[in-house]
Amino acid sequence: MFDRYEAGEQAILVHVNFTDENSKEDLAELELLVSSAGVNAVDVLTTSRNAPQAKYFVGSGKAEEIAAAVKAHDANVVIFNHSLSPSQERNLESVCKCRVLDRTGLILDIFAQRARTHEGKLQVELAQLRHISTRLIRGWTHLERQKGGIGLRGPGETQLETDRRLLRGRIKSILRRLEKVQRQREQGRRSRKRAEIPTVSLVGYTNAGKSTLFNTITNAHVYAADQLFATLDPTLRKLELQDVGPAILADTVGFIRHLPHDLVAAFKATLQETQEADLLLHVVDVADAGYRETMDEVNDVLDEIEAGDIQQLVICNKIDKLDDVAPRIDRNEDGVPIRVWLSAQTGEGTQLLSEALTECLAQSMVSYTLRIPPAQSNLIGVLYELNCISNESYDDDGDWVVDVRMPSADWNRLEKRLDEGLSNFVVRH
User: Fold this and answer.
1) Which residues, 6+ apart, have CB-to-CB distance to 412 below 8 Å?
2) Does residue 245 carry a pLDDT above 80?
3) Strands 40-49 and 10-18
4) Which one of 128, 209, 262, 330 is most buried, counting C-beta atoms within 10 A?
5) pLDDT at 330 over 90
6) Could you report the per-residue pLDDT of 272-286, keeping only the tens digit for each?
7) Residue 371 has pLDDT above 60, yes or no
8) Count of other CB atoms within 10 angstroms of residue 267
9) How far apart are CA 403 and CA 369, in angstroms?
10) Where is average pLDDT lowest: 150-154, 196-200, 340-344?
11) Are 241 and 357 in contact (CB under 8 A)?
12) Is 106 in contact with 12 (CB distance < 8 Å)?
């Protein structure tokens, strides 16, 4: 669908320093992205501007300088650390005589490399199709009804129009399949809600250590690497927490500064695990000097996907890379955990995370002391099944005295299920 140059692995990187804070990007992050994509950066060109130029994004002189660098280094792709318009990409390609990619195109390429599941591949393809639909440039006219005679009449549309029609059809097909996946996920979430199993979702900037932490506390074997966007497909595992019982932990795709809207839309089904969570573990790489800015970026994306109001527990990860920082739990004025300092790589502080998780999720727990007569032996069996007994004894009348702790939802269910109701056996709250 393209009359464009083929991209290769030898890249010239272009970074523009803008005076406007909202337009600024991080050059070190671009280099990480390029490295994650498996591309070799042969040269980095930087410039400063107040605003992008309409034709080339950079000035015409800088465009010529980029073209000279491409020729000198025998590069086959130019990667901009910014979003380019389709016309800017084409104008730059005509000057540089090689493929030009912007930041969004690079991120999409990395996503395409990382997608492993059927759902992940569909989501990436959808994002790519939406991105390239504005970049179709082939305008062949040989299919138009311009000539008479047998065998020369076309369907009346240019090749560009045909390409757009095929793209629209493919996008609709992918959306239908993703809707099916979304319905399946929704069904799973509903069944967890019915069982009153809390969901904890890992969120954070890309490469903050979410998958490593996920593997450490669940003994899972999710792919984890020191690269951007190592995780694309959400993975769910069951946790057993003391005083809380089972909980579901979800590992999700990492966020990044100025996350492309095509990706946010395509990964709607994945991000819904975050939207529906009872608690968010916001994983932060505290060894990164700019971690406060990345935290703000993550919170902006959470607001964008309407998950900004969900309770957060901040995980200050990678303390093994810092001097004189010990694992600890920080609490607010009410004594509720708000931060846990740990290292997912070494396992330092992960026990503290279990404690903090228990405290955060145990706010919905109830504790009672019950006196149950021998005639209610069926209730004793039910309490054993729920694994909620913390202490038990017998009084002088032969009644069973038991201390129980359980989710309030389980208590309410038993209240409705039993003829006499549990409240009649309570001797102490």
Assistant:
1) none
2) no
3) parallel
4) 209
5) yes
6) 667 778 888 999 999
7) yes
8) 24
9) 4
10) 150-154
11) yes
12) no
| Residue of 133, 119, 135, 134 lying closest to 174 (CA atoms) | 119
pLDDT of residue 2 exceeding 70: no
Closest CA to 26 of 291, 301, 304: 291
First to last CA, the chain: 70
pLDDT tens readout for residues 3-33? 556 666 788 999 998 877 666 777 888 888 8
Whether 255 has a pLDDT exceeding 50, the answer reads yes
Report which residue type is found at 203. Answer: V
Q: Which residue has the tokens 């999720």?
A: 361
pLDDT digit string (tens) for 287-323? 988 889 888 888 887 887 778 888 889 999 999 998 8
The CA distance from 22 to 15, in Å, is 15
Encode burial over 241-258: b for 16+ CB neighbours within 10 A, e otherwise: beebbebbbbbbbbbbbb
* Lookup: tokens for 166: 């095929």
